[in-house]
Amino acid sequence: MFGLSGFKEVDPSYVAEIASKGAHLIDVRTEAEVAQGVIDGAIHIPLHLLPLRAADIPQDKPVVIYCRSGARSAQACAFMASKGFDNMHNLAGGIMAWARSGNALSLLR
Predict the structure, then answer these.
(1) Which residue in the list 10, 25, 57, 67 is annotated as catalytic?
(2) Is the pLDDT of residue 90 over 80?
(3) Ranges of each domain in the chain
(4) Model confidence over 3-62: pLDDT tens digits?
(5) How far apart are CA 39 and CA 51, in angstroms?
(6) Residues forming a β-bridge with 27
(7) Does the record carry Iron as a key word (predicted)?
(8) Which of 4, 20, 42, 43: disulfide with 25, CB 3.0–4.6 Å?
(9) For residue 107, which of 36, 25, 16 has the smallest C-alpha distance?
(10) 8-10 and 88-91 beta bridge pairing
(11) Which element (helix H / strand E) includes 33?
(12) Domain 8-100 adopts which CATH fold?
């Protein structure tokens, strides 16, 4: 269920499940942070470029946005929801929660 913010807070196991079913993953961290590893299949759109790249984000499948801890990605989800996107998911705890859950990180291709 989506909250009043217009997006859903999700945990790493949920992200792994919907990613395997074709969800779109977006990493909004900085270049330096992304160089340390990403969730496999994610695309990198730095937070400050999100308004310019919003048209590139699909509206017909779930979109998971993540950052280091979940704060910047929550801002990104709220922004996208304000633009009419109703398919936004924020990875609660960010990539730190993802890694703590034992999930692998990949290098951005």
Answers:
(1) 67
(2) yes
(3) 8-100
(4) 557 899 999 999 999 999 999 999 999 999 999 999 999 999 999 999 999 999 999 999
(5) 22
(6) 44, 66
(7) no
(8) 42
(9) 36
(10) parallel
(11) helix 31-34
(12) Oxidized Rhodanese; domain 1 (3.40.250)
41 - beta bridge partners?
none
How far apart (Å, rounded) are the C-alpha atoms in residues 49 and 39? Answer: 19
pTM: 0.93
Output Rg (C-alpha) for the chain, integer angstroms.
12
Cβ neighbors of 89 (< 8 A, separation 6 or more) are 7, 8, 9, 10, 14, 15, 18, 23, 62, 63, 64, 65, 77
Tokens representing 91?
């990875």
Predicted local confidence at residue 76, as pLDDT: 97
Q: Distances in Å between the alpha carbon of 75 and those of 25, 40, 93? A: 16, 22, 13
Q: How far apart are CA 24 and CA 77, in angstroms?
A: 13
Both tokens assigned to 8? 């859903």
Question: CA nearest 101: which of 7, 5, 11?
Answer: 11
